[in-house]
Amino acid sequence: MFKNVNDLTDAVRKAVETTVVTDVHTHLFPPSYDEALLWGADEILTYHYLVTELFTVAPHSLTCEKFFSLPKSAQADLVWEHIFLKGGALSEAARGVITTFNHLGLDVAGRDLAGIRKWFAEQNIDEYLAKVFEMANIDYAVMTNSAFSAAEADFWRQDLPVPDCLKTSLRIDTLFDDGWEKAVEVMSDAGYDVKIEPDDKTYDEVRRFLVDWSERIKPVYFAASIGPDEFAYGDDNPFTHVIDRAVMPAAVEVGVPFALMIGARGAVNPNLRAGGAGVGVADVMSLTRMLQNHADGKFLVTMLSRDNQHELTVLARKFGNLHLFGCWWYCNNPSIIDEMTRQRLELLGTAFTSQHSDARVLDQLIYKWSHTRKIVADILVEKYSDLFAAGWRPTQEEITRDVRAIFGGSFEAFLEK
Ligand code: HDL
Ligand code: ZN
User: Fold this and answer.
1) In angstroms, what CA-CA distances link 131 with 202, 366, 372?
2) Its pTM surpasses 0.70
3) Which pairs count as long-range contacts for 202-208, CB under 8 Å and 24+ apart, including other chains?
4) Would you say 29 and 53 are in contact if contact means Cβ atoms under 8 Å apart?
5) From the CB of 358, is ligand 1 less than 6 Å away?
6) Which of 38, 91, 118, 319 is the most buried (most CB within 10 A)?
7) Mutate which of 24, 27, 331 to test ligand 1's pocket (most atoms within 8 Å of Cβ)?
8) What class is the 5-416 domain?
9) Which residue CA neighbors atom 1 of ligand 1 most closely?
10) Which residues of the chain are under the pLDDT cut of 50?
11) Residue 224 CA to ligand 2 centre (angstroms)
């Protein structure tokens, strides 16, 4: 039993710092997947968040076309010059690079990019991957594995080694909206009897395609990113029919949740390529109808607009088959992580997953989790201090239990539900 609030808050901070996290959504790949796994100074500096920031300050003469035609190291040099040396590195994505280099023991104060690059060049990726997971204290990360990518299908056909710290998800965005025709082509080429104008047989075949892929890669969940305007469930439209007649029946058959990432407005500025998407407010009533119609299914949800968060969190109180995760993308900034985590704790207790890294570059795991742990620690110190002041006496075990819950424990309980 803690004698005073100071001992309690020290225990809370230690628990947040030392509890293992499960990273429920990333874009990482196994080292055996060739260059698909991004890592090192030039990749972390050309993360699409930083590239888009570069174009907010770069000279007009630097067009996207010119930039993307440069070698990766020259692209990184431009980001380093404009965002870090001339810009002050104050954005979350820039500060993250500094945090990562610092945690790796690299010469950040000296701004020695050449020396930093040299250090990365000396690393062995298999050992470095294990080192990064250990530094970030992550038990496993869930990858993004597209069911409609030829490279992905080729990788899984070869049965190449995948470290235990990486698990799969089945990414199915292509089934929706303007991807449908490509999805039909991929499934048809793979021997599934599907038509552009879907009939009952087509929906059954889409379901079989998803089940077959699931048997091959054993995904933790199905996943899709859906735009704010496209997320229109419940009307007599293709989106609703694919969900009702193929995706959810397959997810229930396989026994996995459907992870919906809602609100990315695609290609607002296509010139920025991966960084070109914006954000839009989506209709939470669409999700409500989906939950009402699929009580036998389970849904993991994160939304991109800050404006959607309160309504979504209240909805999570109404449906036991809905689990919220992460402060996604444009919400993955301290000011919004703080607001969202407080709101979720105050409305849901520990029945949510506080964060995911969305890491595209291996090294990012270090900063994405270091930054989040600090914010979560400050919030939990406040919440436990309020409880202590009201006479509640949490034990060390209970604090550890609660921290683990929002760092992956509740996610795993939801998967087993
Ligand atoms: O669709 C997604 O999974 C998003 O996370 C996008 O990949 C986005 O580009 C991203 O990396 N956000 O962090
Ligand atoms: Zn992502």
Assistant:
1) 46, 10, 19
2) yes
3) 203/241, 203/242, 203/245, 203/246, 204/246, 206/175, 206/242, 206/245, 206/246, 206/247, 206/250, 207/245, 207/246, 207/247, 207/249, 207/250, 207/253
4) no
5) yes
6) 38
7) 27
8) alpha beta
9) 225
10) none
11) 9
